[in-house]
Design goal:
Number of domains: 1
Radius of gyration: 21 Å
Shape: elongated
Order of helices and strands: EEEEE
Strand order of the largest sheet: 1-2-5
Distance between the termini: 60 Å
Number of helices: 0
Mean pLDDT: 91
Strand content: over 45%
C-alpha cells in the first residue's frame, strides 16, 4: 500500500443548478414571503458509492438523481 497516493483518485466535480422563485407581500407591521425552491433542476447525478457485481467481478460507480422541490412560507416582523 502506497500512502503517498492516498486520496489521489477523485470523482469529477459535480455541478448543480438550483432555482428559487419568491413572492412577498408587505404589510404595515409584517411581511409574508412565499418561496418555491427546486434543487438540482437539471437532474445531475450525485455520487452515492460503489457497487460490486459478483457475476462480472467489476466495481462500478453508483449514482442517484434527486430533484427536490421545496415550498416555504415565512413571516417577517
Amino acid at each position: 500500500m502506497d500512502d503517498n497516493k492516498a486520496f489521489s483518485e477523485q470523482m469529477p466535480a459535480t455541478r448543480f443548478f438550483d432555482l428559487t422563485i419568491t413572492y412577498r407581500i408587505n404589510k404595515l407591521h409584517h411581511s409574508s414571503v412565499w418561496a418555491l425552491q427546486v434543487k438540482n433542476v437539471l437532474g445531475s447525478p450525485m455520487f452515492e458509492g460503489y457497487s460490486y457485481y459478483y457475476k462480472t467481478g467489476t466495481i462500478e460507480n453508483k449514482g442517484v438523481v434527486i430533484v427536490l422541490p421545496i415550498f416555504s412560507y415565512k413571516i417577517e416582523f
